[in-house]
Amino acid sequence: MNNTKRLEIFHRFHASNPEPKTELAYSSPFELLIAVLLSAQATDVSVNKATKELYKVANTPSQVLDLQLDGVVKYIRTIGLFNTKARNVIATCQILCDEHNGEVPDQRDALERLPGVGRKTANVVLNTAFRQLTMAVDTHIFRVSNRTGLAPAKTVLGVEKALLRFVPRDYLLDAHHWLILHGRYVCVARTPKCPECPINDLCDYKNKSRIGKNGKLESGLLRQNRGSEASSG
């Protein structure tokens, strides 16, 4: 994919959604940090349901510590891996209180030292809470970057570096949100919704889906397999 196509892709994303936002509910860097920490292998909807009640009683590190482990578990037990996540939340809050005066740091190294916080989580917080030019690559962004040809690479870190290099700088701050929303609702894993995709004509994917004779969405890979079977028979 060339840079002219990349520029047009993000021009269209921006035109349709000028101010993209995360679907996680938060009102402070701390609330965002905890929400992202809880979101691993969980939906944003499930996290928002849990944090809505949690943040009513505890939305600062010291308040969460006052709940203690069992108190945190009570609010997040509907989320996958809640026991491990609760321990990470408590340990993270302790470090924030002990080393950062109860504030969420805006440096990558400090964030990645927090329990349960890896590079992706740190990038989300740095970008969304502190508006830094970072790129958090999840499964959706990894898929979209490779499938479309926008920023192909074999590893998550490779895609992150490619996106930071290829995304036009004027669009880089919000690119994470556009790409994750595109992957979540349009360029989905099993059968991408190519007929309704706003960048269909710019995408390099060779097996685009289309509406079949029965009026239903049909995978390009399925058509390809049918063609192979017909020719071999």
Mind sketching the topology for me?
Blueprint: H1 3-16, H2 29-38, H3 44-57, H4 61-76, H5 82-99, H6 108-112, H7 119-128, H8 139-148, H9 156-166, H10 169-185, E1 210-211, E2 217-218, H11 220-232
Antiparallel strand pairs: 1-2
Give a short overview:
This protein has 11 helices and 2 strands. It is an all-alpha fold and 233 residues long.
Give the topology string: H per helix, E per strand: HHHHHHHHHHEEH
What is the average of the pLDDT values?
93
Q: What is the total number of structural domains?
A: 3
Question: Looking at the chains present, what oligomeric state does this protein adopt?
Answer: single chain
CATH superfamily of the largest domain: Hypothetical protein, domain 2
Number of strands: 2
Please give the count of helices.
Answer: 11
**CATH arch. level architecture of the largest domain:** Orthogonal Bundle
Largest sheet: 2 strands, antiparallel
CATH topology of the largest domain: Endonuclease III, domain 1
Low-confidence stretches: 226-233
Q: What is the CATH class designation of the largest domain? A: Mainly Alpha
> How are the strands of the largest sheet arranged?
1-2
Portion in strands: under 5%
Sum up the overall morphology in one term. globular
Structural class: mainly alpha
Distance between the termini: 37 Å
Amount of helix: 55-70%
Radius of gyration: 20 Å
